[in-house]
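Exercise 7. Predict the joint structure of the components listed below.
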Amino acid sequence: MKTKTILLATALTSVGFAAAAQEVTVMSWGGSYTKSQVEAYHKPFTAETGIAVNSVDSDNPATPIKAQVEAGNVTVDVADVEFSDAVRLCDEGLLEEIDVSMLPAAPDGTPATEDFIDGALQDCAVANIVWSTVFAYNTENNATAPATIADFFNTADFPGKRGLRKTAKANLEMALMADGVAADEVYDMLETDEGIDKAFAKLDSIKDDIVWWEAGAQPPQLLADGEVVMSTAYNGRIFNAAVAESQPLVVVWDGQILDFDLFVIPKGAPNLEEAKKFVAYSTDTQRLADQASWISYGPARKSSGALVGKFMDGETEMAEHMPTAEANLTNALVNNFEFWVDNDAELNERFNAWLAQ
Amino acid sequence: MALPKHADTLERVWHYTYLVICGLIFLFLIAPILIVIPLSFNAEPYFTFTEKMLAFDPTGYSTRWYDLLLTFGMDSPEGARDGSWWRDAWANSAWINAAKNSVIIGFFSTLLATALGTLAALGLSRPEMPFRRAIMAVLISPMIVPIIITATGLFFFYSKTGLANSYGGIILAHATLGIPFVIITVTATLVGFDHSLTRAAASLGATPSKTFFSITLPLILPGVISGALFAFVTSFDEVVVVLFVAAHDQQTIPRQMWNGIREQISPAILSVATLLVIFSVTLLTVVELLRRRSEKQRGLSPS
Amino acid sequence: MTAETGAQDALVTADGKPLKAALRAAQARSKRRAFYLVAPLLVFILLTFVAPILQMLHQSIHNDGFTMHEDVISHERTPLMVNLRQWFDENPRGTAPDEAAYAAIAADLLVLREVKAGGQVGTRVNYERSRSRSMFTKAVRRAERLEPPFEAAFMDLDEDWADPELWAAMRSSASAYTMNFYLAAIDKVRAPDGSITNVDEDRALYKKLFGRTLVLSLLITFLTFVLAYPIAHLLATLPLRYSNLLMIFVLLPFWTSLLVRTTSWMVLLQSQGVLNDALVGSGILADENRVQLMYNQAGTVIAMTHILLPFMVLPLYSVMRPINPSYVRAARSLGATSWTAFRRIYFPQTVPGIGAGALLVFILAVGYYITPALVGGADGTLISNLIAYHMTGSLNWSLAAALAGMLLIGILILYWLYDLLVGIDNLKLG
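Solution:
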């Protein structure tokens, strides 16, 4: 019986199309972000190495790759994940370790270990960008322009629906900052039960006006359609909708939360060697700088900074749209990855119970 | 339903109110399906009627979203539409690839479901079938058990057996989901089936397979075909199992729609929807014709 | 017996066998033949459908996250928490943890660090007691620095290590087979003394969702009934050539892709969508007062009522069509008002159709996933959406399986009822 089942399984698995000889499957966040990676990484990588790149999208690649590794059927070779997720998955032994010596040095010879900004190199992950969670609004649907994170939570003076990401991360921090907590005290506060209660209470005050989003492409769409008047979003998505598609969207940098996105290789990746090549290639100085001409995310290498110029339209200077630009950092929070490594599961559990109440 | 002559005013009023109510309910049924058709020709990226559309201004309408269905995912969508452009579209267009996958999966799962289902229906419709009711209940259950439960079960099962991320796995799952429809339609056709015909064939020396192919099958064919169409539509419309057990690059039309709806419902989705509505109108017509043919053949009055 | 046999000896077949035996053999043969026709499909369904569901049910009572680690690549299996489990075996439930217990954990943490299983074990304990996962991951990170006396060392890490609830949770997790996921699925948890109590108010979720699923499904069933009855009646009483034509209105939605229908409703219901635009355009609503019809319960109810309506119309129609109109006419001629004639004569004859339709719609509604996921927002989601969330989001697969198991039991009871009252054979399509 058992052998028969296996035979049947093998016979059925072989139905389908023959795979290309050399390929690598990269999972990222979809929309304009994936497009920036396809243009800056995938296309030149294929041109140079002959390895085809399959691009697949996810709302948050950390979850499907964890599921794949735990269930034992991994199809993704490289995934683009957030900082805390990269560290957490590595701690759980779900990721391949990455040997930093395989990463190319900067053009001036600075070794990769010194060229990447602090925290960008982890045991199992290599950062490619610095991005941030911000909130944005549609100028056509707001009588007065919101200017601070407190305005986002102020439905009395700024009526209308708000878009928020359907997860605890970033929402709790923003809620506290809107409640007047200084950026550098946010995580200390969240370590306490009172702090968490306070954050949920603040979210609760606008709960009836929230439209939840999951995919990064949704907020610009919700804003452009007028389904919400303001929404939290990944800053690059808003930039692309505003500049490339001329939507009347504006980013509010007050209360932004900075984070890394990093490339990781799940354990059991079917094309391990190609995956390593892809990670090394995509995070070299030129590639990271190239990506910044497709979307407003900062490169994770210091040496790329000087090469960042204009947006692909040839006129917009990228520097001022970067989350790390001096003017945008007046009230900014750097995501505390350790906090989220430890508390992500637990806070999301509470978050979901709160959602249903 | 005609109003009797002696009806009083109140009854007349009620009668017409009733007709209006029925009209509104029919509108409720059909309007959401038809509304996507004009909207899919919107020249603007909105899901509502623009002023130009309402004024029937031709510039308010365009086929750009249908064009996008072709070009989305292509290597070089801008080029001249010559042979190589169409080859590019055939090989790389995301929607065309999804359609190819849907058709392949749908075809094989329908084949499997129809063959197994018809055979079983023949057995089930025999009066001497043991445990008929219990077995029937098991075989119909894939239609009743919520798809999310089936998908959850298959996720664990396929991870262990190596069927995950394979076309074979999806085909098996879709065949399972289509089987109840085949059984229901084929057994319904067999209700009026005259078993003395097969006995006559057997007594004249025909082998069971000869009897099946020359006597039984031609008579139940309309039921088999509509069962197969049901099974095909079930597979063609199924997204949850695909989401749970298929590899990320195994896109089908519903899965591509699901992604599109969640991320950005551009009118491109509406143009796919329009094509699918046309598809279902065609299928409905075929099934209806088959039903009539079957009833005529079996000498039943249409009811 | 002998007398009877003697009497029947006269009846034999041509080859001399008793007729009764021959008949019995022939019947058994035809029974077998009928069964052989069904057998391939039965095996197929058992393999591709029943087996996966049984395996899922196994997952709902089995979780070895606390006891076993399997390497992803080499599939090498390492037993976990061996020392602590031994301590549990030696000490009955309720024993306060002593130095030996803490020493056992300290030794186990080193193994966890070695095989990178801290997250796995912490997650497993976290299913039983919230906020335990971080305690494990932190402790594993500092495992090498823990020194005797271990009790004090752990208190230094986090005073919660002395919490009796944590110890109860670890004890529960220590056995791979557990019913606790079913408890969690009804918002219950095991207290330190082994008794069953409610979870904290702010974490209770599932009972509420089961309740909501039930209420919304009932509401949808009722709405489909209200909408289906008049049109089924109209279809049943019109001459065939008209009713066949009108039937298209019912069958076309039935044949149209679920995603197409859901998309259409999104287009209609959005706050900048067709319906709101029409209301604003006709002056009924002010532009700033657009109604929120989507991403809430209203969206789920409206879209699902539309999608499930054909499943109510068809059984009603098939019951109404053969009803003889002369009964109602007779009642009218005997002086009944049209209302009385309907209530006393017509309606009772349609009850079987109502039962069949209502059960079918209700069964389909409780398990719905796609539509609520797309138009339901946060408060319009059903239990299926939560199963999907635990499958693909939180990855708490045992809880997902337990929730699915409970839903499955409910559905099977309804299915059994349907078979009893209506009969599976009477299920008709189109």
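Discussion. The first helix of chain B runs from residue 9 to 34.
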